[in-house]
Amino acid sequence: MAATTRRSTSSAPTTTITPPVGRLASWRLHVLLLICLTMVVVIAVRLVDLQVVRSYELASKARLEVETPTLLAPRRGQITDAKGIVLAMDVERQSLFAVPPQVPVERKAEIALLVAGATGVPAESILSALRSDRQWVRLVRWLEPEVAEQLAALDLPGLRLVYEPMRFYPQGMTAAYVVGAINLNGEGISGIEAFYDQVLRGSEGKIEGEFDPARNPIATSLSRTLPPQDGADLQLTIDPFIQQVAERELKQAIDEQNADGGSILVLDPRTGAILAMANWPFFDPNRWQDYPPEVYGRNPAIGTVYEPGSTFKMITASAALSSGAVTTTTTVDDPGWVVRYGNTLRNFDGAPHGALTLGGMLYYSSNVAALQFNELTGPEVFYRTLTRFGFGQPTGVDLAGEESGIVNFYGSPGYNPLTFLVNAYGQAISVTPLQLVQAAAAIANDGVMMQPYVVQRICRNGDCVQTTPRVAGTPIEPEVARAVREMLVDSANHYAPVIWGPRTGNWSDQWLVPGYRVAAKTGTASIPLSGGGYDPTYTIGSVLGIAPVDDPRFVVLVKIDRPKKDTLGVLTAIPVYYNVVDQLLRYIHLPPDRTLVSPGQP
User: Fold this and answer.
1) Contact status, residue 601 vs residue 510, Cβ threshold 8 Å
2) Cα 222–chain centre separation
């Protein structure tokens, strides 16, 4: 049998080859490496910038987040009157602050409405503050105690009640123009508060250390407290009784005459101390925002000028006697009117008075005699005397907002011969009430003019500095001052019937203030109009005087603006002057001289 060859049907084993993994193209690898390198460089540069270049700046900012010092407000100094009654002081009131990051975003609108409802502050303002990026923001300042209690009971997140000093004026309107007021930033804006702002304010203290966002000290950190330096306390020269008398009499006259305004000043001629300074309209410094700026921001006694009218004739008489060309017996003729430089100049009533001495000029308040005495005096001596009396320049009183007055001195661009003549009776010249009182005080003080002042003592930490009265000048000689005072006694008694005529039936000269010799000069001042000329209807009525004449203790100015019933002002100002002076002399317990009483007077 033939052999059979058998072939295996199984195939030889096969090897499976795995496809190679895809390779990253070399250019892509280079890009990747470049990006990584760039990032490393950027990070390195940034690290160098943050940790080297700007390290101090950023560290400072970081410290400020936790180390910003908490400021401690000083107590503003007290202001008291001459008897120690407090006129201005700081009281603690709670203010509402917020820590905006701690106020939930979803509740900010609700919280703004709740705060607005309790405080009256617009909700939009509150919401804007709550949305700020600041860590600490004041929402409402100086809450009333009941409002603070209401907000505390609400326990609103992110809100804090913090005590802050608030200025308070316990006597309200009393002596408000002297004391002044401060604004919401704690800065004096008028009166003593403005003039002595830096002295009263003191300096802030602070707590240095680390604080959390709510401005609470971090217990584990070191802290340092620098206490605030409280402001100095000021005691004024204002006598509370005299100020009360001045304000009461002024208000009564304003009410009776429906006048536009007025002032009463009382000054001690021996020292220059201002004992009372009253102005109308009154204002309450606790609510100064309720008044226009021209009320709370300007003291009419020092910041408003006016033409003094016939009260200025006592200055004219002083200049005339100082010139040497006029004596107490020199006379001029008063026909009632004269013509000078094409202008007719007349007495207030046009009445003639014949031959008049300086005393007669003051007694009858003769304009025609006054201008003729000025002609005898001459412009050089007249204006030199005015300069010595301080007209045309501030008195330097320690109150904010004093004006200089307006005088067209001899040789100045505004001077002309007609102005010189009408200046003799107080026209075409402007003064402040205090300037006029200071000048009259020099006449009262035998020719020695004192610097007016209103702060008599400054105390800080128990150490007090007393104000020393300072001589401001000697405008006239003692014999001139005494002569003018004697003339003004007759002038005062000439107007006594305004007070005593209706009471006694005696309309002749008599003692104005029974039992005392007092001096007084009335004035009916014309009011210039902005367009030129003078107000044809209304005037300023005033009386300037000295009491008592033999030992002067007071210089008093009464000024009533635009009285509506008594358009000349004399019938208004004389009774006010009498009421003030009578009370002042009784107040100092000056015994009356019973020989100085006219028939029918008490």
Assistant:
1) yes
2) 44
